[in-house]
Design goal:
The protein has 14 helices and no strands. By secondary structure, the chain is an all-alpha fold. It comes from Kribbella flavida (strain DSM 17836 / JCM 10339 / NBRC 14399).
Length: 283
């Protein structure tokens, strides 16, 4: 009752200012994506038209993306392989490391955690030359592992940190009760802890997959064979009709194709993502 009275007494500016702020943020975030979609559906001759909607609508750019000889379908499959394998390996290694750090008591544990999160602060560009030299020596250039291993090193620190925080919120009595009932420590982890940690694991998997799917610098530096390159690298190497003009519309259409699956996945699993993020931070 008192809340309603205060809301009624507040001026219109104070009441609608939060909504206006949210609307501005949403427009700011969605404007580039909107323009990418609109540009994708313009005719190639209308690419530099500044109207808000295409007129007429055209599928020429989308057809050009999947045209014969472009190989964009194979690039999408490569992105799926790299992002999928990176996510699986990150979860396997990250779960074991995070559970160990959360449950075992040893000296300098917090220092170890600080070192792990510090490794994620290195700029990717500073690692390209050493990795390139190493991968040339061991003949990993133009292979999937040349993209997966660096992506794994980028994703693991945040995954270990997030999962460690999540496991620390879970009471030790859960494992102790399971072991009293006859479970081994490994069975207690697999049958009791892991299902309860599903929101945190799911959130880590989604964030890792999106980061690996969007990775560009390492994929561009370590692969120059068209059959192995990922979708992001393929988009950057699109050529125009003459080979010298900028295929702006085709790149926009390819960007829509690459982005839409991630948007749909986030919208479908947004409740699980929010649940995982808040569960690790509130408990």
């Amino acid at each position: 009752m008192s809340t309603n009275i205060k809301a009624a007494e507040a001026g219109p500016l104070r009441r609608y200012a939060p909504l206006l702020g949210v609307a501005i943020i949403v427009l700011y975030c969605l404007a580039p994506f909107y323009w990418m979609i609109v540009s994708a559906f313009r005719r190639p001759l209308d690419q530099f038209d500044n109207s808000l909607l295409p007129s007429p609508w055209s599928l020429d750019n989308l057809q050009a993306v999947f045209g014969e000889g472009v190989g964009f379908g194979r690039s999408l499959l490569n992105s799926l392989i790299v992002a999928g394998v990176t996510t699986i390996l990150t979860l396997i290694v990250g779960l074991v490391a995070a559970y160990t750090l959360a449950r075992l008591d040893f000296k300098f544990k917090n220092v170890v955690l600080a070192i792990i999160i510090t490794t994620s602060m290195f700029p990717g560009i500073s690692l390209v030359i050493p990795l390139l030299k190493l991968f040339i020596d061991i003949e990993w250039i133009n292979t999937y592992q040349a993209m997966i291993v660096p992506s794994l090193s980028f994703a693991l620190p945040l995954a270990v940190w997030t999962l460690t925080t999540f496991f620390r919120q879970m009471p030790r009595e859960l494992e102790q009760a399971a072991m009293v009932d006859g479970c081994t420590p490994a069975q207690a982890f697999r049958k009791i802890i892991l299902p309860l940690a599903a929101p945190g694991v799911f959130t880590t998997a989604i964030i890792t997959f999106i980061a690996a799917w969007n990775e560009f610098l390492i994929a561009l530096s370590m692969v120059n064979k068209k059959e192995i390159q990922t979708a992001n690298v393929a988009i950057s190497k699109f050529t125009g009709v003459s080979g010298f003009d900028q295929p702006f519309g085709t790149q926009m259409a390819a960007g829509v194709v690459v982005t839409i699956p991630l948007v749909i996945a986030v919208l479908i699993f947004q409740r699980r993502i929010v649940a995982g993020l808040t569960a690790g931070g509130v408990k």
